[in-house]
Amino acid sequence: MANNITLGSMNNDLKYDLVSHFSNVFDNNNHDSDPIDNPFLSKNLNCNFYDEDSFTSSFANCEMPIVLNVNIQYLQSKYENLKYLISRLGSKGIIIDIISLQEISNMNDPLSISLPGFHPFIFNSRSQCKGGGIGFYVRSDLKYQILDDLSPFHERILESMSIEVEFKPNRKITFTSLYRPPGNHPSLSAGDQLDSFMKSFSDLVCLLSSRDSYICMDSNINLLNLVNSNISQNFIDLLFSNGFLNLITKATRFSKNSFSLIDQICSNFNCSSFTSGVIISDLSDHFITFSCLSLKKDLPKAPKFKDYRDFSNDNILRFKSDLSKINWGSVLKENNPNIAFSNFWDNWSMLFDLHFPLKRIRFNKNHHKINDFMSKGLLVSRKNKLNLHLNFIRSQNNEDFLRYKSYRNLYNKLLRVAKKLYFEAKLERNQGDPKKMWDTLNEAINRKCSKNSFINEINVNGQPSSDSQKIANEFNIFFSEIGEKIKADIPPTSAKPEDYLSESGFIFELGTVAPNEVIDIINSLQCKSSLDIDNLNSKLIKNVISEISSPLAHIFTLSFRHGIFPDRFKISRTCPVFKSGDKDNMSNYRPISCLPVLSKLIEKIVFQRLYSFICHNNLLFKHQYGFQPKKSTVHPLLNILNYVSDALNNNEYVVSVFLDLRKAFDVIDHDILILKLSKLGLHNNNLKWFSSYLKNRKQFVMVNNVLSEFFKVFNISVPQGSILGPLLFLIFINDIFKSNSLLNFLFADDTSGLAKGPDIHLLANFVNTELQKLGMWLRANKLCVNADKTKVMIFHHKNKNIPPLNFFFNNNDINGPQLLSFISPIERISNSSTIPAFKMLGIFLDENLSFNYHIKQVRNKVSKALYFLVKAKNVLSSKALKTLYFALVHSHLLYCLPIYCSTNKKNLDSLYTLQKKCIRTILNAKYNSHSAPLFNALNILPFPDLITQQILLIMHSIDKKYCRVNFEESFILNSNSVSHDYALRNANDYLLPHTRYESLKNFPFYSFPKIWNELEPGFRSVTCKSIFKYNIKSHLMSKYSNFSCDKLFCYICSRS
User: Fold this and answer.
1) 501: which DSSP letter?
2) How far are the Cα atoms of 164, 384, 765, 831 from residue 797, in angstroms, in the given order?
């Protein structure tokens, strides 16, 4: 009997149809009325049942926007199925514009459920209990905004979210996703709950009636029960009275013995016909409802062709062979670097275009497939599963349901096995390619590893623009002019840059370049396949460097000799990289330059020579830690921690000012930088070379793979993305410490100034005065402070109360008029602040150095990572899970661990507990199994031992003097702390300072030397860093190798 029931017969069956039910009620209540007064008959409503095949055949290449609506019943568990469904529809030419979901339940990590081609998932979820919640996926090229005033969210009564989506041309439509829970309210009776819903719903519908609106909902009100239910009649009357019509007229939920229409899409659109329907699917126990909007769909045009060059190994070998036959005499005999490079480029480009001609191929939109593990067999099985589900829906037969359920469970099991085999095989294939390995791991856990670089829209002079060409042009203008605009707003000062400079007494020479040096330099660069503006990459250059090293060495030598940086090297392709804030504001983007690969060679040579000169002569400020090999964020934080803990030990306060420089890299004045280079010891053509390198640079801007129509010449800033740029910035800011008496710590442009003292009022006055001095240096050097982002913090003991104090940044000269308009207050961060800590170099510092807030942040990150591990354990091997652990968990635990391990034991134990959960997940062990043998099996240090290891590694670097930072004032050997000459038994131990407070013993100035002193001399005597690290880890792991439970009776052991 079931097999004789078809979709057509279901569509014709009046018991499933709302219009027939309503007509019966309508006819009974309105004997004298014209049928045209029936709202459902006044519009041409086309609503039918569809299965996947009939839906795709009916709506392929649909020119109207489509909205889907479904009660998903826990999105996290249904995400993969939803993702596959949307992917399959897309492959058949059905582009979904908006997906409205109900009962999404709790969201552990919203980014992990992002759908390709859609904006990140937006939602409202419950805070007090599980279940419920609503949300939207919106197609990525549609602009939308959340309407908070139209999004009432009353948990377990009415849960909603409204968004306004802009369709072209300038048509804004409001979509509301709404869920009404069926009952079981903790404090309201069923009747009171319904009354509360109807009141809230009435208010919301009334507000929505003034807009073009669609309400997508699961109301849990069965509209097929109009004859017997006043609730259903009142509900539909409420919709009618506000101009809304329910477009879904077929049953949306089937169970073994019943069916209902509880999922609705309602609209107040003023049009004569609507196309909608119900898709029979087993995505959840609610069917998917959909509606086509009476608008023209505006889809971005997909590229039909793409240009490329074939850099195959065979082509590279032929290119290399022909390069070796070239006579480079026209280059080697030339004395002008620009002409020499032009001659080189003529020969190079001729062969380059010959062996790597530009080709055009048709763009394959199906190249990036989703779910490659779906074999033909699984696709057939999925089809069979859906057919069995459809048979059950048609027959409502219990035997058909059990047949479907059994097949569904088998299919899901096969799907999990297929996933695991697929990812394990893919990881095995990509073992030698870290990037592909990580792409595979991220694919396995649905982790978005990078932000979407596509720029949909930018605000230009108050007007939105979505044209990529125009956006690229505007960014080009903005990036080239922003530096000059910021400089123009800087108040004047009597101070001059040279007031803070002195001659170094040294002389720097660029010298000459040998071919072998060019070869060594290119081999030291990363092997990248991304193309520069000349369609070259480092991978190609590395393959042919031996053939071109001689002409390049000659060109570079000429460049140094004449002080001329070749003009072609000054052209860059700049990409806007989003930082934070509003995405349509150009100020929230950072310009990153992609420079010619060949220019990186000469820059790397200059960098090595200049940096070696600066280091050898100790010309860099000792507390500058940024952009330097063998210096990390731990070093400045450790110095700050030692400074503050020493002050607290002496009952002093510490005031720390964290300065934010406004677009520091973009406003570097070239003339001032050249002045500072001359003071370092660069003269004549050596100095002229740097001037040539900086001035008259040109840039194109690329946005969404579209280049700006013109290039801009600019004479300000150092190029971000270059090799020399960071070092030149360090030189520019190097003398800032001479302007004030604060203890300055620098990490590139992250600048902080500290001062300590017993009297907080005197200390505050001192800091304000020194900030005014520092402000004069900034203005003299054409730099600007962002006062809103500059913060101050007072470090103190918990038992001390800090009186109200005013800190400000004064942009007036000390001896000049004090204009109030030039004085800006600085916010103080305290325990009562909204965020009671300041993030410095990735670590949240609070005023008591408790690290409570930072531990909370680390816990959140590790908890999210643990979610990924749990999610991936069914599709990845233990080996792959261990790799994920090190990337997602271990990296967060390890970052600046020697700094935040000063916190209390409770905080550290909370992280240790999470680490143990991760270890058990990797090995699929029981939740309460002993962790020691698991750590040993994975060769991973438990968190307490990890702390010990990291502290010992720092102390080893200090003791063996390979640390690039001087800590001799903080960590003092006993042999250096006494004045007599005879040997001490503990001469090689470090001095333990006297602490007035027990809590201070957790801080590095005491705990680091204590842990080092307790280490056996045999370990301490090892000088090699790698051997020491290996020995320490082996020693710490040894206690777990022969684990035995020492409990008299252990429940866990007895059950194993």
Assistant:
1) -
2) 51, 69, 21, 12
Number of H helices, E strands in the chain: 33, 34
* Residue 876, number of CB atoms within 10 A of its CB: 24
Confirm if 898 and 638 have CB atoms less than 8 A apart: yes
C-alpha closest to that of 267 among 286, 288, 294: 294
Q: In this structure, what are the phi and psi dihedrals at residue 632, rounded to the nearest 5 degrees? A: -130, 175
| Buried residues in 97-120 as b, exposed as e (16+ CB within 10 A) | bbbbbbbbbebebeebbbbeebbe
CB 187 within 8 A of CB 238: no
769 phi and psi angles, rounded to 5 deg: -65, -45
Strands 213-218 and 171-179: parallel
**Chain centroid to CA 932: how far?**
34
Q: Which residue has the tokens 């609610």?
A: 286
Instruction: Compare 1047 and 495 and report the one with higher pLDDT.
Output: 495
Mind spelling out the 3-state secondary structure of 551-577? Answer: HHHHHHHHHHHHCCCCHHHHEEEEEEE
Position 369 scores a pLDDT of: 47
* Burial (CB count <10 Å: 0-12, 13-18, 19+), residue 2: middle
Positive/negative CA dihedral, 597, 603, 608, 609 = positive
pLDDT of residue 733: 97
Q: How confident is the model over 698-740, as pLDDT tens digits?
A: 888 999 888 888 777 778 888 888 999 999 999 999 999 999 9
CA gap 499, 561 in Å, rounded = 31
Q: What is the pLDDT of residues 246-289, one digit of tens each?
A: 999 999 999 888 899 999 999 998 887 899 999 999 999 999 99
Q: State the angle between helix axes of 905-922 and 878-885 in degrees (0 to 180), rounded to the nearest 10.
A: 150
Q: What is the pLDDT of residues 280-328, one digit of tens each?
A: 999 999 999 999 998 887 765 555 667 788 999 999 999 999 999 999 9
Could you report the per-residue pLDDT of 758-771, keeping only the tens digit for each? 999 999 999 999 99
Q: Render pLDDT for 530-540 as a digit per residue (tens, 0 to 9).
A: 788 888 989 99
Kindly list the distances between the CA atom of residue 856 and the CA atoms of 345, 851, 862, in Å, as whole numbers in the listed order.
Answer: 56, 9, 10
483 and 718 Cβ atoms separated by less than 8 Å: no
Residue 759: other Cβ atoms inside 10 A: 11
Tell me the Ramachandran region of residue 960: left when phi exceeds 0, alpha when psi lies from -120 to 50, beta otherwise. alpha
Query: DSSP per residue over 4-45, as a string?
Result: G--HHHHHH-GGGBHHHHHHHHHHHH-TTS-GGGSHHHHSEE
Burial class (CB in 10 A: 0-12, 13-18, 19+), 274: buried
Q: Which of 802, 785, 798, 794 is nearest to 767 (CA)?
A: 794
Nearest in space to 648 (alpha carbons), one of 819, 532, 800: 800
CA distances from 735 to 503, 743, 751, 1045 (A): 12, 13, 12, 60
pLDDT at 1: 35
Q: Residue length, the chain?
A: 1056
Helix orientation angle between 670-680 and 725-733, rounded to the nearest 10 degrees:
80
Tell me the C-alpha distance between 62 and 982, whole Å. Answer: 93
| Start-to-end C-alpha separation, the chain | 53
pLDDT digit string (tens) for 540-596? Answer: 999 999 999 999 999 999 999 999 999 999 988 889 988 888 888 998 998 888 889
Q: Return the DSSP state at 256.
A: S
The pTM of the full predicted model, rounded to 2 decimals, is: 0.81
CA torsion angle 418 421 423 426 (round to 10): -130
Cα 487 from chain centroid (whole Å):
31
From the CA atom positions of the chain, what is the Rg in Å?
35
pLDDT digits (tens, 9 = 90+) for 592-647: 888 899 999 999 999 999 999 999 999 999 999 999 999 999 999 999 999 999 99
